Amino acid sequence: MVKEFLSLRGVQFVEKNVSTDLEGRAELVAMGYDTTPVTLIGKQRLEGFSVPAIDAAIADLKDGNESS
Hints:
This protein is α+β, with helices and mostly antiparallel strands and 68 residues long. It has a single domain, classed as 3-Layer(aba) Sandwich (Glutaredoxin). The protein is built from three helices and two strands, in the order H-H-E-E-H. The two termini are 24 Å apart. The relative contact order is 0.16. The mean pLDDT is 93.
């Protein structure tokens, strides 16, 4: 759902399939996650799928207000 939503918003993204990408899986685990989706927007890490959270993170990134 996340990638479809980002596509609808015209946002470019890099998808990492942690089922087949061992390096991507290692990155996910190193961040402390063991489930997906996890979406990185700027410095923000969003777990799950939340339209308001994704929109807010995109707006913050565009405005230069990245949260850590």
